[in-house]
C-alpha cells in the first residue's frame, strides 16, 4: 500500500509499505480521508528522528473497518468511523474519569500514544488502530469527519473547559483562524451567545472567520491587544483562545484577557506567556485570570463534535488533495495558503 512517511527530519515521501498486520484487540481501517494538522509541520521540522524506522504521518483519520481482531466482538467489518487520537491506557484514574487526554501512563508532560506521532498514522491506504479508539460517524462524509478527530476535538475541548466565561455579553477572542480556529469560531457560535472576535494575519482567513460566525475580525499585529481592550471598555476579553501559540500571540493574550478571564493556549508555536501581574495595573497579566495549556480532548468531546457536525452546526472548510499530492498540500499549509483544513484522500 501507499503511505506518506517521515523518513528523516524535514523529509516526507510516499512509500510502498506492507498493509499493517493487526493484533487480537485491533482493527484494520481502510482510510477514507486523513487531515493535515499544523502539528504535522511541527513534527516535520523536529530536528531529531521521532523513531528509527520511517513513520507514517496522520492523526486525523476517517475510514471503514476492513478487518476485526479476534478478541473484538463489538465492531464489524464495513462500519464507518474516525479514530480517537488518545491511545490511552483506559484504566488509570484520569482515564476512568474521562480525561484520557491526560492519561497517567503517559507521564507528567508526555502525551498518550497518538497515531502518526509514534505508532503509524493514517496518511496511507490502511492503518492499524486499537479497537477502543474507533468512534462511529453514521453517514457523515469522510472529508468532514476526519478533521473532527483533532481540529474539532481540540477546539471543542478548549472551549468546553472555558464555558463558564462565555456568558451572554462576554467577549471571546480566537487567535489564528486556520484548521482549528475556523472550527473554534463555529463551536463558540453553537455553544454560547458570546461576542466572537477573530484575529489572523490574512484577509482570507478573516473572511472565513466571518462566514463561520465571527462578529468582529482584526488583523493580527502589535496593536491588536489595544483594539480588543477598546472593544471591551478597557477591561479585556473574558476568554482568549490562542491557536498559534507564538511569542507575539501569547503576549497579545496576556494584554487582552480580562480580570478573572481565561487564556487557553492550544497552538504549539513555543511562545511563553508572561503571567506576572503588574501591581501598578499596567498592561501585564490581570488578577484572577487563568492560563491552561490545552491538549486534545476527551472521548466525549469527540462525540459532541461529531454530533455538532451531524446537526449541521459545524462545517469544515475542506481543501481536498490526493494522497499522491501530499507534498504540495504540506507546502501550501506551510506557506499559509490553505483555507480551513487540508485533507488527503488515498
Ligand atoms: P493552521 O496552519 O491551519 O492555522 C494557523 C492559523 O494561524 C493560520 O490561519 C495563520 O494565518 C494564523 N496565524 C499565524 N501566525 C499568526 C499570528 N501571529 N497572529 C494571528 N494569526 C496567526 O494550523 P492548525 O492546524 O489550526 O494548528 C494551530 C496550532 O495548534 C498549531 O501550532 C498546532 O500544532 C496546534 N495544535 C495543538 C493541539 C493541542 O492539542 N494542543 C492540537 C492540534 C493542533
Ligand atoms: Zn490512562
Automatic annotation (TrEMBL):
- Going by the entry's taxonomy, the superkingdom of the source organism is recorded as Bacteria
Known PANTHER family for this protein?
ALCOHOL DEHYDROGENASE-RELATED, L-THREONINE 3-DEHYDROGENASE
PROSITE patterns found in the cross-reference section: ADH_ZINC
Record's protein name? NAD(P)-dependent alcohol dehydrogenase
Gene source species:
Rhodococcus daqingensis
Q: Which InterPro entries match?
A: ADH-like_C (IPR013149), ADH-like_N (IPR013154), ADH_Zn_CS (IPR002328), ER (IPR020843), GroES-like_sf (IPR011032), NAD(P)-bd_dom_sf (IPR036291), Zn_alcohol_dh (IPR050129)
Cited SMART domains: PKS_ER
Question: Which CDD domains does its entry note?
Answer: arabinose_DH_like
Named cofactor requirement(s):
Zn(2+)
Sequence similarity: Belongs to the zinc-containing alcohol dehydrogenase family.
What does the UniProt keyword field contain?
Metal-binding, Oxidoreductase, Zinc
Identify the Gene3D superfamilies for this entry. Medium-chain alcohol dehydrogenases, catalytic domain, NAD(P)-binding Rossmann-like Domain
- Report the residue ranges that make up the Enoyl reductase (ER) domain in this protein: 10-344
